[in-house]
Amino acid sequence: MNQAAPTPKDNQGDPVVRIDGRLKVTGQASYPADIATANVAYGVLATSTIARGKVSKLNIEDAKAVTGVLDIVTYGDMDNIGKPKFGNTSASSIAPLHDRTIFHDGQIVALVVAETFEAAEEAAMLIHADYEDEQPSAGFESKGTKTEAAAGKNPMLKEDPKAGDFDAAWANAAVKIDEKYSTPTQHHNPIELFSTTAIWQGDQLTIHEPSQNVTGWKVELARQLKLDPANVRIISPYIGGAFGSKGPMTARTAIVAVAARRIGRPVRCVVSRMQAFGTQTYRAETRHRIRMGAGKDGRITAFGHEGWEVTSRPDPYVVGGTSATARMYDYGSVLTHVSIVHADRNTPGYMRSPPETPYVYALENAMDEMAAALGMDPVEFRRINEPAKEVIGGKPFSSRSLIKCYDEAADAFGWSKRDAKVGSMREGDWLIGMGCATAIYPTAVAPCAARVRLTSDGDVRVQCGSHEIGTGVRTIAGQMAAELLGIAMEKVSVEMGDSALPPAPVSGGSISTASVCSAVMQACETVRQKLFAGAVGKDGPLSGSGNAKLDMADGKVGAETGKSAKLADVFKAMQVGAIEEYAEFAPKGSSPEALKKLYAGQPEFHGGEGDEDSVKYAFGAEFVEVRINSYTREVRVPRIVGAFAAGRIMNTRTARSQLMGGMIWGIGQALHEATEIDQRHARYVNRDLQDYIVPVNADIKQVDVILVPEVDREVNPAGVKGLGELGNVGTAAAVASAVYHATGKRIRDLPIRIENLLA
Amino acid sequence: MSDAKNHSGLSRRMFMTGTVSAAAAAPLLAKSTEAAEPSPARSAEPRELSAVSMRINRQAYNLALDNRTSLLDALRDHIGLTGTKKGCDHGQCGACTVLVDGKRVLSCLTFAVMAQGREITTIEGLASKDGGLHPMQQAFIDHDAFQCGYCTPGQIMSAIGCVNEGHAGSQDSIREYMSGNLCRCAAYPNIVDAIVQARDETRKV
């Protein structure tokens, strides 16, 4: 046992090592751009250098003349192709090669295809456009943006949550906080570059591309290319980090497919790190105003949360995190409103805990400010405002272990040793600050299909079109099957990441473990029942035992009497070599079309605040120590402790790693990450990994993850709450709280950098 | 990219091959001229192919490569060793780290022609012939030192380099000398633990 393998507590599964661990440490795990492809040609994008206007002329002659160039796909070449539609499977309605309008800087103007990567790159650099350019609007500060109410524009936010009489409660509140907060544009920057490899065989198209949604993409790409979805296959067995960036398909996929069809050869386009900033999605920049009123007893009487978010000109992307903030505490009244601001930018998209990261950051900062204004301990302040039911719909929480998380994390952190006085803790040249904040993430689940096969030799194969983006879902799906079928993990194989497999929902919204495990459970249950029937049947080895209390363990079927039969003997009696079951799981409350929609790549999500009976969330509490150099104001985070309760934990190893990674993301949100924008040209400036700062090894020291036992039978058959996105919610507010404790400076705009702490 | 000559009149090719005799260029060339291997046969035109010989994972390779081809692209696209990953192509993420003559090198910032006569070790070359893992590979599994696994080959190659350089003496030193390898899944504490576990055994390999 080591730190990476926490001992399971109640309702927690073993820290089984990753099923693909050996492949990943030997370089044998093949990511989509690794797939050996004979006769492949190389594609390189050319992108716009203005953010608003029109391409009057694209000069491609010099590029065409480069030795080795095979083709250039540009305006006019996509005319017979369907335009992308903004939605869950498509990143944006911007169809870059369908018309010459430029909506944002870095928009695709051409794809060069050549015999070699070097020739394609050289040629792409020689393409230049003549523009009719207009002054772009970069964002909040710019003239010419268009602001509109977000509610109803996007399924992410159907309406602005509210409760009670906010105006009256606010007017009468004894203590008030009225502050503004902001979070910057951020890019996911998974270390794997975005890429598309398109291979045609007649009218059959195979795409190798890192994807969090192979089924959805298959259907959407088929629509764009006017193909039967049965002729399109998306393959993405390993994904080199995603964080939401590989959820929606971008316009590039169809362009590369068209290029491959034109030249009659496979084409691979690996997008440069720099070009990814403009051709992929990103986390929208947000601003917040929070008004919080409380009585002297610490009870919150009024909570007002207004949000503003940047989006592109054509698409109503909505972050909309008020759904969670409005239900977080026992507010007396709630008033929320979200606006989107259309600017000359590419369309934002989902990025790890898309709504919660920015909105809970604002809320938890305000909570810390209010606790300080009341002179209360911030943990105590949250305890006082712990709700019995959520205040918007009056529904109970399916489970809520927030206070338990606070207690366990506070204890492990040593919160009681904190001197509450601001600026009171110091060691040599280092000012010490300690802070905390709440993490919350909605628990959702979606329909999912899976196929499970068990052979008489005890080999298990699980097939499910979900996606291994690093979460460990491949391991966990195998673990679920191994446990239910009583087979050693070494005998289990799991296939994922291929639209030819049984469909699974998009791997987003932390739904995969719950959805996939529920489907695998269902398939395994049928396998078990068939085996049990065979075991106790007339010719079965356990004939006469009755099948009420049968179970499977150690490669055997066992009866309550203690009698057991080897799998091989049961199969022999049944006269079959393998049992294979295909299961379609639909969550409680699913519509009659739910499974049909799964196959169509439009799965219904259930859970969160959308269910009738209860609201469903996972919670956590995070405590951070910061050390700030009294001269240089350099901020370090020597330790962070998080305690999380997320229902059944399938595997304590992968769960801890995900939560730890999330918390480190949170440190990055707090202190490092921001995409800088040249306001004059609406252009991203720091478009590489040198200047887009993410945490490196030296930024991180002690990270402690506590898995708090919790049982929740309402959320889904597996009893699992997703936790891939939980860990980085609240973290930045905990850091900001600690910075305030150390310095007395309340930094409300992320990221917190040295210049904010000087003087 | 189209001009093979730079303003001083020295060709890019000449800088790379180390065949220039101009005294002013000598410091730049010191390393190349020390190489015992003969220079590869090259064309004056950068787009034309050069013959390059190198040893990769204890096997000899003779290749004809565009002079602009990076060692990374040579490994991935020409040799089929795709375990080495491209994360930025700018030397900023460390995913492409390989060992060249035992030292860690960013293969995306190395022209393949610069590897003439060198001994390259990639992630595929670490495990023994019978499939036994290198202690660093095993330690990465034991400590769950990855999630998506994409940066992992670079992390492992860099970790071996870090140990062999003598920079793995303390956890702080490991953190510092492993900071050229980004892990967006942020498995950093697990990576440090893995290197501590494998440190002594790696020195013996």
Protein architecture, described:
The complex is a heterodimer of chains A (759) and B (205). In chain A, 61% of the residues are buried. The two termini of chain A are 47 Å apart. In chain A, the strands form eight sheets. Chain A has a seven-stranded mixed beta sheet, sandwiched between helices. With 759 residues, chain A is an alpha+beta fold. Chain A is globular. Chain A folds into three domains: 32-134 and 197-270, Alpha-Beta Complex (Aldehyde Oxidoreductase, domain 3), CATH 3.90.1170; 162-185 and 283-443 and 611-757, Aldehyde Oxidoreductase, domain 4 (2-Layer Sandwich); 445-605, Aldehyde Oxidoreductase, domain 4. Chain A has 18 helices and 32 strands. Chain B is α+β, with helices and mostly antiparallel strands and 205 residues long. Chain B has two domains: 12-28 and 36-125, Beta-grasp domain (Ubiquitin-like (UB roll), Roll); 135-204, Orthogonal Bundle (DNA polymerase, domain 1), CATH 1.10.150.120. In chain B, 34% of the residues lie in helices and 13% in strands. Chain B has a five-stranded mixed beta sheet, sandwiched between helices. In chain B, helix 4 (135-142) runs antiparallel to helix 7 and helix 5 crosses helix 7. Chain B is globular, with a radius of gyration of 18 Å. The N and C termini of chain B lie far apart (43 Å). Residues 1-36 of chain B have low confidence and may be disordered. At the A-B interface, helix 1, helix 3 and helix 16 of A face helix 3, helix 4, helix 5, helix 6 and helix 7 of B. Chain B: This is (2Fe-2S)-binding protein. Chain B: Pfam families: Fer2, Fer2_2.
